[in-house]
Amino acid sequence: MEEDDKVIRKVVLSDEFSNYYDKLNSKIQDKYAYSIQLIKTIKVVSEKFVKKIQNTEFYEVRVSIGTNKYRTMLVATDNVNFMEAKRVILLNSFLKKDSKQYSREIEKARKILIREELI
Fold first, then answer.
1. What are the phi and psi torsion angles at 35 (to 5°)?
2. How high is the pLDDT of residue 119?
3. Contact 38/111 with Cβ under 8 angstroms?
4. DSSP code string of 47-94
5. Residue 5 and residue 93: Cα distance in Å, rounded?
6. pTM for the full predicted model
7. Which end of the chain is more exposed for a tag (fewer CB within 10 A), N or C?
């Protein structure tokens, strides 16, 4: 079976995510690549990798290396539930420092959606 036969979800990368990813070291890029592969090929992804952000339409992709916690805002474009979605977009990314940071990052994600005319 070819790789494409296993894909159940299309993952679209925003320019913001791509630029962020390109600046990461290869170890972190490898962890992101693994997480993205899970998102593409597994219907029910563990909260260790993708978690709903309460009271928003967003999810976060979670990558950890040591004590560093990297997060990427994700939105499902064809279903309100990520697990049922066939297409998702990785929006903005950040190195998590504290929980207050989320409101700024959610606002950035919304601006990307509006700019790309996805909402």
1. -60, -40
2. 57
3. no
4. TTTEEEPTTSS-EEEEEEETTEEEEEEEEESS-SSGGG-SEEEEEEEE
5. 29
6. 0.89
7. N
